[in-house]
Design a protein that fits this description.
Structural class: alpha+beta
CATH topology of the largest domain: Ubiquitin-like (UB roll)
CATH architecture of the largest domain: Roll
Helix content: 25-40%
Shape: globular
Bound molecules: FE2/S2 (inorganic) cluster
Largest sheet: 5 strands, mixed
Number of domains: 2
Number of strands: 5
CATH superfamily of the largest domain: Beta-grasp domain
Mean pLDDT: 93
CATH class of the largest domain: Alpha Beta
Distance between the termini: 67 Å
Strand order of the largest sheet: 2-1-5-3-4
Length: 177
């Protein structure tokens, strides 16, 4: 038996017939080719498969594809802009060397974005707590925490930019040339 689902993934809407037991992560990877979302365990433990479902992070290996029916999924592949500009959290991970093998990174970044949308100014402990469902074998977490703090700063700066402050910054930049 199959069930028909309609899901928006990274801004594109798909309708597919799926088995009721198909996991969301397998739907994303095998049907849609969204292989940026990875599988790191079979115990719902590692968080590598984290995506956003209707704006909140979920471990996509613990959600059925049919549970996403009618929903809006964002994966790591949907974060950058069309012109290739990275999301501020992606930039912060790159700039703070917050990855080594990179396997945990897609899930870590999706979780970090959710964390920062709930708490735009977390202390280190809140970052560690917010990421405790995501495991990294390589980094020792220090640079990941640093990257999330850097990303928080970048996002707060963007949030407080108004047309006036953007114009003032442009003026200042023009003045020093
Ligand atoms: Fe490990 Fe989903 S693959 S939690
Ligand atoms: Fe290798 Fe995190 S960078 S598991």
């Amino acid at each position: 038996m199959h069930m028909r689902i309609t899901v928006t993934v990274d801004g594109t809407t798909y309708t597919d017939d799926v088995e009721p037991r198909l996991l969301l992560v397998h739907y994303l990877r095998e049907r849609l080719g969204k292989v940026g979302t990875v599988v790191g365990c079979d115990t719902s433990n590692c968080g590598a498969c984290t995506v956003h479902l209707n704006g909140y992070s979920v471990k996509s290996c613990s959600v059925l594809a049919v549970q996403a029916d009618g929903g809006d999924v964002m994966t790591i592949e949907g974060l950058s802009r069309d012109d290739g500009t990275l999301h501020p959290v992606q930039e912060a991970f790159r700039d703070n060397h917050a990855l080594q093998c990179g396997f945990c990174t897609p899930g870590m970044i999706m979780q970090a974005i959710d964390l920062l949308s709930e708490n735009p100014d977390p202390d280190d402990e809140a970052v560690r707590h917010g990421l405790e469902g995501n495991l990294c074998r390589c980094t020792g977490y220090q640079n990941i925490v640093r990257a999330v703090q850097d990303a928080a700063q970048r996002l707060r700066a963007t949030a407080t930019d108004t047309p006036e402050t953007v114009a003032a910054k442009a003026d200042t930049a023009g003045g020093v040339r």
